[in-house]
Write a structure and sequence with these properties.
Blueprint: H1 2-32, H2 50-76, H3 79-105, H4 125-133, H5 136-164, H6 168-193
Helix pairs in contact: 1-2, 1-5, 2-3, 2-4, 2-5, 3-6, 4-5, 5-6
Amino acid sequence: MPARRTAALLLLLTVLTSCARGGAREEGRTASSPSALPPTTSAPSPVADPTDAAWLQLMIPMDEQAVTLLGLAAEKADPRLRAWAARLRTAQTTELAELRKLRDRMGLPDTDLHKGHDMPGMVTAADLDDARTAEGSAFDRLLVAEIRDHLRQSEQVSRSETTAGTRAEATARARALVTARGEQLADLAALCAGKAADVPEPFACPSDHPV
């Protein structure tokens, strides 16, 4: 199941890239046609590479939703999970700020192209509703399962961006994200195994998708 979900997300990234490239070509044909009107304003910034744009516009909402879920852990999670969730939320909030700055530099819109989509690694609105009503171990299981999936899928898609992207700062950001995800998944594995420095007692993590 995890492999199929990852493949689905990578396929989505490919489709988004293809659509973006098609739109860019269409804009190019329109601009170069004899009937096209000359620009009356200053020239816009260069169009962002479709692969870079597709990756960035996927990572931002993925992080936004994950940060929201992690924020619920401060009051609802098992005490053994709270410190881990707080650290991860801080890291992802910082990461999200950098991704938004990159989006602005690339001249991309701040609209969420994936709002309402149920995609691998995306914490959905329904997931958040479930988290708000869940209590005790039910919340803990949901939190760990959703965040683990988020970390894995965003790592896989970012790894693809490191080889398929063209903008240097985008691929550099993707490499940094891949490194961070590896460390974050290792932290979660240590937590589940009772090897975390601040949580010496093992936490009963969901075992259907082992770290």
